[in-house]
Amino acid sequence: MSAVTTTGRALGEPRLTPLELSALTRTLAAHAPNHDLDGSFPWPGVEAAHDAGLLTATVGRRYGGRGLSAREAVDVYLALGEGDPSVALLVAMTAAQHAVQDAAPFWPEDLYARVLAESAERPVLLNAVRAEPELGAPARGGLPATTAHRTSGGWSVSGRKGFATGSEGLAYHLVWVVTDEAEPRVGHVIVPGDDPRVTVVPTWDHLGMRASSTHDVIYDGVEVPFENFSGAPVGTVPNNPTLPGAYSVGVPALYVGVARAALAAFGEFARERVPTSLGRPIATLERIQSTAGEASAQIRTAELVLAAVAADIDAGRANPADLGLVKLITSRAAISAVETLVASIGNAGLTRSLPFERHLRDVLCARPHPPQDDAALLATGRSILQS
Question: Which of 348, 357, 253, 356 has its CA nearest to residue 299?
Fold first, then answer.
């Protein structure tokens, strides 16, 4: 049964059964190599995720959605990451904004109702656009150079942002700004992606996640209404606010999905590869079997960690330290698993006609996502030593 939004339109019930998620993985995987090759925006995968109801799966019950449990989030992002991690990341960014809105509403009521109405009919991508070329990641501190200037009709937004995931396809940018008021405020201002004063600069030429459209964006005096910004005095809000619990396992899970894809490709390769000197598939060799076992152990470790933390989140007993460490533990395991597989098959592992080098490039992109390893370890260490 479909949920009915506050606008009276129906949001699709998320398709979350194992068979449905497996089918979605295959759909995304069919397009992923080409989008990786040319860096094109992965609309077919985004549309498939939309059709599966995943872009709006975190819409809260107050808005006619059903919400998404942490356990469900793990299953969703494992499946999406295994199919196409760039699509998974675009879905995760959009889902995060719906989850944040449910936890602490800040969108103008009419505008959010419009977003939900449009989302019932087509993909509507959202993302917080925060990093800047000079500032770097806001999680490391500092104020943005991007400003919101108060005008007679609202706000004028100007500045340049970097690493804006989904830039070419975003319906709305939630731009991290500081006001130029006598007593400055910081926060996210909601900017329509189709405003003519929003310019995407194609700077994303990255090792991995090449289809994620993580380009720079220039805002040149974009005019928005007063209600599109509700900031807070500088110093009263954290630069890297805590996201809702269920979302905290989404991005880590998608990278474990990449490792799953690499292991599946390894199994297929090993069963089909028959060197003339051996006369049988390399899958029969103990060394290859041990490699598969080692990678599987790493992936299974990450899956169990995700499942345990998700269970704690859903039960309301999550340890804040665990939410920081889950990304570190799972990304290290996923990266190790893919590196192990690639190393074991020599040149084939780095050949562009095979999927292994793509999976390796993609899984390495886990490292820059916050919390980065040093930040997670520092926070955990301090909590131990100060207790």
Answer: 253
382 burial class (0-12, 13-18, 19+ CB within 10 angstroms)? exposed
Residue identified by tokens 């929003």 is: 198
* Residue 69, CA distances (Å) to 59, 74, 115, 245, 315 in order: 12, 9, 22, 9, 10
| Nearest Cα to Cα of residue 131 among 328, 370, 325 | 370
Indicate the SS3 state at residue 154.
strand
Residue 320 has phi, psi (to 5 degrees) of -55, -35
Whole-number Å distance between alpha carbons of 378 and 355: 35
Residue appearing with tokens 């709305």: 172
Give the SS3 label for residue 375: helix
Location of structure tokens 């665990």: 322
Q: Which fold has domain 245-385?
A: Butyryl-CoA Dehydrogenase, subunit A; domain 3 (1.20.140)
As a whole number, the mean pLDDT across the chain is 93
Q: In this structure, are residues 42 and 151 in contact, taking their beta carbons and an 8 Å threshold?
A: no
Cα–Cα–Cα angle for 370, 167, 113, rounded to 5 degrees = 95
For the domain covering 129-233, report its CATH number. 2.40.110.10
DSSP state letters, 25-45: HHHHHHHHHHHHHH----HHH
Q: What is the pLDDT along the chain (387 residues), one digit of tens a residue?
A: 355 555 545 676 899 999 999 999 999 999 999 999 999 999 999 999 999 999 999 999 999 998 899 999 999 999 999 999 999 999 999 999 999 999 999 999 999 999 999 999 999 999 999 999 887 666 666 789 999 999 999 999 999 999 999 999 999 999 999 999 999 999 999 999 999 999 999 999 999 999 999 999 999 999 999 999 988 898 877 766 666 667 789 999 999 999 999 999 999 999 999 999 999 999 999 999 999 999 999 999 999 999 999 999 999 998 888 888 999 999 999 999 999 999 999 999 999 999 999 999 999 999 998 888 998 899 889 888 986
| CATH topology (fold) of 11-123 | Butyryl-Coa Dehydrogenase, subunit A; domain 1 (1.10.540)
Query: How far, in Å, CA of 292 to CA of 269, rounded?
Result: 12
CA distance 132 to 148: 15
